[in-house]
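Before the break, one more example. Copy the sequence into your notebook; we will annotate it together after we see the structure.
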Amino acid sequence: MTEKTIPLLTCRDIAPVAAFYRALGFAVTFEQKSPYAYLVVERGAVELQFHGMKDFDPQTSLGGCYILTDEVDALHEVFRAGLKDVYGKVPTRGLPRIGPVKDMAYGVRQFLMTDPGGNSIRVGQPTGGDGHIAPAPKETFARALHFAVLFADSKEDLPAAAKVLDRALALTHERPTPDQRVRLLVLRADVAHRQGEDPSGVARRLAEADAVPLTDTERRRIPDDLARLAELRLTLR
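Here is what the structure looks like once it is written out:
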């Protein structure tokens, strides 16, 4: 006996959703406009189905699913390249969008995407652990980064992430290590960019991060953050 789960997601219009998933390398295997809008997309073993609702607001969507893979970094690059080909750039805010790859405190390396219907598609690769969130570190800045990453790149609560990061960066009686400071500044710049804040503020934080002297060992600790810094710099040009 074999079973299979297929997520059924909501969107307002199936046409932009179909275009988005085609850009990711999915095949549209079923598309119906009447008597109601319905769409099926497939990529390998992954199948997603969508039904259209004219009065649906994608900005308020709570729909989503989790896709597990054993090559999350490679898939992230493929998806980014496909989106850039179709949209002219990699969309990192608004709808649709794709986020950076992050190692999460619950034992996965993942990235988040949101399609034109407002559905959150999480793509992750297990890295160990039992799926529960690891205890928050006690050290001030490690703790701030722990919660800020969870808020920004799991819950997608950007205001909460910004609050945590601003509080940590404003401290004067304690100082983060150089690599912690870079991580704090890059994530704060990333959150500001995703929230549509003034680009000059984003650029200022990136410049501050760029100016932090790092040893080779410190650079090897934060490859994802340094890659995101370079990407954001290009985005602002």
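The longest helix spans residues 178-194. Residues 37 and 217 are 54 Å apart (CA to CA). Try to locate both features in your own notes.
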